[in-house]
C-alpha cells in the first residue's frame, strides 16, 4: 500500500465544503489528518496522509483539485539544506514525530520527510537555518512575520 502526505489548501470560498470524506466514500482511500489550521475568512490548511494504491491516490488528488482544492506534496514543500546542517542534534529533541533523528554510532541527524508534519519547531531552533519551509503549520509564524 502506498502512502503520501499532501498539503491541502482551501481558499475561503470552499473552506467549509465537505470534500475530504469523499476520499473514503468514493475512492476507498484511507486518510489520516496529521495537522490542520483554519484562518477564518482567509484559508484552511490540512496536512493529510493518504493511503491506498498509487492510481487511486492520484484519482483522489485529481478529485480534490477538480473541487478547487490546492494540493501539494509535502515532500516538495519541506526539505533540509544538507550543506547547512552540521548535525548538532538541537532539532531532534523537539521534533514531535521523530522525522529528525540521530543515527548511532554515526551521530548523523537523519531527516525523514514522510514523518514530518511541518510544525516548524526545528526551524525555530536550527542555528543555521537548514530546515526549509517547515512553518506551514507553525502557529507563531504569522506573529513573527508581523513583528518584522
Ligand atoms: S517541521 Fe521539523 S520539527 Fe516539525 S515535524 Fe517536521 S522535521 Fe519535525
Ligand atoms: S538543528 Fe539544524 S544544524 Fe542542527 S542537526 Fe538540526 S538541522 Fe542540522
What do you see in this structure?
- With 148 residues, the chain is α+β, with helices and mostly antiparallel strands.
- The chain folds into 2 domains: 75 residues, 2-Layer Sandwich (Alpha-Beta Plaits), CATH 3.30.70.260; 63 residues, Alpha-Beta Plaits.
- It is 24% helix and 31% strand.
- It has a 4-stranded antiparallel beta sheet with strand order 2-3-1-4. Strands 5-8 form a two-stranded antiparallel ribbon.
- A hairpin with a 4-residue loop joins strand 6 and strand 7.
- The longest helix has 13 residues.
- The relative contact order is 0.18.
- The model has no long low-confidence stretch (mean pLDDT 89).
- Bound molecules: iron/sulfur cluster (SF4) (2 copies).
Short overview:
By secondary structure, the protein is α+β, with helices and mostly antiparallel strands. It is built from five helices and eight strands, in the order βαββαβαβββαβα. GO terms for molecular function: 4 iron, 4 sulfur cluster binding; metal ion binding.
